[in-house]
Amino acid sequence: MYFIDVILPIPLKQTFTYNIRKEEASFLQQGMRVAVPFGKTKVYTGIVYAVFKDKPPNYETKTIDQILDEQPLITQRQIKHWEWIANYYMCTLGEVVRAALPSAFLLESETIVSLIASEKEVDESDFSDEEFMVFEALQHQPSLHINDIRNILDKQHVVKILDGLLQKKVIEVQEEVYEQYTPKLKRYLKLASNYASEENLRALLDTLTRAPKQREVLMNLFMLSAQQKKPVESVELQKKSDTTASVIKTLIDKGVLEEYFLQRDRIQYEGEEASEVKELNEAQEQAFSEIRSNFDNQDVVLLHGVTSSGKTEIYVKLIAELIATGKQVLYMLPEIALTTQLISRLQFYFAEKVSVYHSKYSVNERVEVWNNVLNNKPKAQIVIGARSSLFLPFSDLGLIIVDEEHEPSFKQYNPSPRYHARDAAIVLASLHQAKTLMGSATPSLESYHNAETGKYGLVQLKKRFGNVLMPDIELVDIKEKHRKKLMKGHFSDHLLEAMHEALANEEQIILFQNRRGFSPIVECTTCGISPQCPNCDVSLTYHQYKKELRCHYCGYHMAMLQSCMACGSETLDAKGFGTEQIETELSSLFPDHTIARMDQDTTRGKHAYAKLIEKLENLEIDILVGTQMLAKGLDFRNIGLVGVMNADNLLNFPDFRAHERSYQLLQQVSGRAGRTEKRGKVLIQTFNPYHQILQQVSTNDYELMYKQQTEERYQYKYPPYFRTIKITCKDRNFDKMQKAAVWFGRALELKLGANVLGPEQPPVGRIRNQFITNILVKIPKQQSLGKTKNYISKVQRSFNAIKEFSTVRLSIDVDNY
Known about the structure:
- With 817 residues, the protein is an alpha/beta fold.
- The chain is 35% helix and 23% strand.
- The chain has 26 helices and 37 strands.
- Helix 2 packs across helix 3.
- The radius of gyration is 31 Å and the shape is globular.
- The two termini are 48 Å apart.
């Protein structure tokens, strides 16, 4: 008897063993998918992990349902990489598989209900109304999908009703696996084979003299076939003939035309031919040769290049060299907004060799990219993607570029696996013996520290492309401006003056405010109460365009109140301001100019980013207001002024990375200004212009910020000198959650002592009706990371065995960036 170990996409630690026949054993390989029964009725898609002949554990193994692939869908290197992620980030392999595979590959079972064929009469008097409705529906068709039953009864929970019918032995239930991926088929037309001879064709045309529309279709078919030397699409022929589908259908019914279908990828490149790679300038050329010489003895190189120094052109030249050897390249970006701008730039150089992979793509599109990468097709030699793209099945990876490597968006927070894409990419590259190039104008402290200590290579690019000057950054003291009554709404006189000047010069403006919505707090001026979210410990944010109050943590929303809920007074006042309020103020201050907003509310659609960016590039937008999406390395040619509305809410954040993040964000936002000939201007409004971070931003002094921050980190035992693991406890019952967290903290202290901090509640202590508390474990460099994790896992196993804490949810976040 033969057996296989299967990884299931569920959060359980081990693989599961199933028995298979001898011929299945000779066919199955690691990385293939199989449908397997699990539990009482469920069928899951599992990934074959190992095939073996030995006797399995002491339990009865089940047989597999079916084999789903003819070739492995997942490579051995991928499984190794996923095992590393599961091991390093302390999660299960099943969770990694669920995150890694497009959902179309994870076939799941659907419940199919049918009547039991029986000779004896069914006693209908015993049925409830809902049971009778299901029974009656099954009289008319042999089987029903569970969703059909939900629709019939207009109910979401139908298990109890089906259970009643099962006990009465009226119905039977089975699980059926369904395929989510549907290939895209295109319809093509050709002349029927019996009209191939000239005389038959002439006779046909003579008979069609009284059907001019049908004759026109045929003439166009001949013309298109002669012109393009490729199959003629049904849609194309219909358009060209300026006719209707019914005319074409008549010709098919008559047997004059034959239709056939071909499978087509959903993403086709139909642009121009690839262009020559641009010549680099002197500074770029030097950086390029330094990167190559660093790659001789280092696998990872950090390119620290100021904003608009032309890092992308260096990447392009590296990619061009590498793909000439036939290897694959992964170009990772933190944000989908960036991919839309970069796709056209890379397609300009590499045409159809570029594929894109991120969450705004449909399930079917992602499956096609996956298959193209797996089969090493030329159209997927270069993959641009967000963090999920590192899960693709590369077979011959030569280079990974991690652009804007400092971005927090590279870190996955929820759900598990809580991996950091930058670090996981370095491991992926080492599995392929490939190189990693990380680029940023404001590198993360960890990466810069690794470069300083010789773990990574370091290449500096200090000048902007074309020797354009760095933007002129000014700090505006709004405390002083308020005192002198020089503020107009949230705009200082200085900012308004600069805006008028930029618009007069036909330059565009970006305004940055890191809060979406109209106002973060609505407060009653009579009793001081502000509406709170019922599920989270936060105030509701006012969104004017929908006239509603919304929670940005759980999505709860309600209509804007007319009067105070507590005292009934109609004295509600909006405190603070978000992007929406800035947009409203701008409409009255600059009525003759086009104003747009870029935040989570305006970029929900698949192509929303691309449309906004295109409008800005085509100079259709004069002023763009946005959140930190604006700071993500976008390249706009005509931005003369960048205004930061309020820098203080970035700095006063309870997190040891707050100052580093503030510096990065402000420097990146500033970098959007003056990217061509003219020097750009940046105005940062603040109540505290003498803050060291703001001073460092205004002088563009990354080295000083790095020096000060690393000294503080060393003193207070934080990364890059100590590793951190955050353990979070969540429960609906506050006392139970607190008790569980204290137990866990004490258990960790037994062995890890003073390096365990907490339990401590975060600033927002309740989200989605779950109370939260955190424990932070600090691990010195000399302490074994593996042994510490093993000890935490041991404590976790003991914790899970305590019945009292069974409802408390634990999550572990390694390197909680």
